[in-house]
């Protein structure tokens, strides 16, 4: 690895002393001076909220769950600024079950401990040269996993090319403002795919909930399915906030109210709640499609105007007050 890491920003999460020494020493030898070590989840979350990083290295030995959660939350952050940071998870117990959990967190790579500095260097160099496209499902956002969408019964996941902050920083010398612009533009695309997937997931869950509550007495899993529906629509409402999908957000609020209404009488549900559920779900699908088309048209107009303006006035001085 012959790249200059002087401008690269790295966050280390929960490393043991030996691992911290190897990682900081390796990166330091390549010029990296912006390294922060976070012992606890709150520290990592604070840093991810307050700064933009290029590489996240997480040690999973203390807690597999915390390591996966750190990467997963980074991939799904509402602001999106760090959603495409490269990530490497370190583990000394690469058993098949653990590896599946690590991969499903959305990490770019897994490095088995103990490792030599050369192994870390090779892994980072590989990530700089090549990055897999992201896939988006109702439950996953991250690099393409082997077999995504190829197994019978799995949803076909769209593949989205995303920025590579490491490559942009060490090879293209991209400024932070320009990198942030690229990241946010890609995040809009990823987020839109996620909204589409979750809207479809809602329709599926609504049918399951209606079938469970339609029995007399309601099925044993009725309450659990209702909880899944509530979690899905609540996340969807947060995801559409401020994105232009106003009608979807309004309908999501309506569906949340319906879920709470059904939850108050699980053993004897009000048939009117069950009757209106599919109507709201169908309206959400239609509203998403209509508003997405309007947003796309607005973006195309904005991009065309901006391109023409820059071509006509290439050296305009920008003044901010």
Automatic annotation (TrEMBL):
<keyword id="KW-0597">Phosphoprotein</keyword>
<keyword id="KW-0805">Transcription regulation</keyword>
<feature type="domain" description="Response regulatory">
    <location>
        <begin position="9"/>
        <end position="128"/>
    </location>
</feature>
<keyword id="KW-0238">DNA-binding</keyword>
<dbReference type="InterPro" id="IPR039420">
    <property type="entry name" value="WalR-like"/>
</dbReference>
<dbReference type="GO" id="GO:0032993">
    <property type="term" value="C:protein-DNA complex"/>
</dbReference>
<feature type="modified residue" description="4-aspartylphosphate">
    <location>
        <position position="59"/>
    </location>
</feature>
<dbReference type="GO" id="GO:0000156">
    <property type="term" value="F:phosphorelay response regulator activity"/>
</dbReference>
<dbReference type="GO" id="GO:0005829">
    <property type="term" value="C:cytosol"/>
</dbReference>
<keyword id="KW-0902">Two-component regulatory system</keyword>
<protein>
    <recommendedName>
        <fullName>Response regulatory domain-containing protein</fullName>
    </recommendedName>
</protein>
<feature type="region of interest" description="Disordered">
    <location>
        <begin position="142"/>
        <end position="162"/>
    </location>
</feature>
<dbReference type="InterPro" id="IPR011006">
    <property type="entry name" value="CheY-like_superfamily"/>
</dbReference>
<dbReference type="Pfam" id="PF00072">
    <property type="entry name" value="Response_reg"/>
</dbReference>
<dbReference type="InterPro" id="IPR001789">
    <property type="entry name" value="Sig_transdc_resp-reg_receiver"/>
</dbReference>
<dbReference type="GO" id="GO:0006355">
    <property type="term" value="P:regulation of DNA-templated transcription"/>
</dbReference>
<keyword id="KW-0804">Transcription</keyword>
<dbReference type="GO" id="GO:0000976">
    <property type="term" value="F:transcription cis-regulatory region binding"/>
</dbReference>
């Amino acid at each position: 690895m012959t790249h200059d890491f002087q401008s690269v920003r790295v966050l280390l999460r929960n490393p043991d002393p030996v691992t911290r020494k190897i990682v900081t020493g390796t990166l330091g030898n390549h010029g990296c001076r912006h390294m922060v070590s976070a012992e606890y989840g709150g520290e990592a979350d604070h840093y991810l909220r307050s700064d933009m990083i290029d590489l996240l290295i997480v040690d999973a030995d203390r807690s597999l769950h915390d390591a996966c959660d750190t990467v997963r939350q980074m991939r799904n952050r509402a602001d999106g600024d760090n959603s495409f940071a490269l990530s490497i998870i370190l583990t000394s117990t690469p058993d098949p079950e653990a590896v599946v959990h690590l991969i499903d967190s959305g990490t770019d790579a897994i490095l088995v401990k103990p490792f030599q500095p050369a192994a870390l260097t090779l892994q980072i160099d590989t990530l700089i040269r090549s990055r897999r496209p992201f896939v988006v499902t109702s439950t996953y956002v991250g690099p393409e996993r082997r077999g995504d969408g190829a197994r019978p019964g799995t949803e076909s996941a769209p593949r989205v090319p995303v920025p590579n902050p490491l490559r942009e920083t060490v090879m293209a010398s991209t400024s932070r403002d320009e990198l942030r612009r690229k990241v946010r533009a890609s995040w809009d695309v990823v987020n839109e795919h996620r909204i589409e997937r979750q809207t479809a997931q809602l329709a599926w869950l609504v049918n399951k909930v209606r079938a469970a509550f339609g029995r007399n007495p309601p099925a044993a899993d009725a309450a659990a399915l209702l909880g899944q529906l509530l979690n899905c629509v609540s996340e969807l409402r947060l995801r559409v906030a401020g994105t232009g999908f106003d009608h979807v957000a309004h309908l999501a609020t309506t569906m949340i109210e319906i879920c709470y209404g059904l939850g108050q009488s699980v053993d004897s549900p009000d048939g009117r709640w069950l009757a209106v559920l599919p109507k709201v779900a169908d309206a959400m699908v239609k509203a998403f499609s209509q508003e997405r088309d309007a947003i796309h048209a607005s973006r195309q107009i904005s991009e065309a105007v901006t391109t023409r303006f820059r071509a006509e006035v290439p050296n305009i001085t920008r003044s901010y007050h």
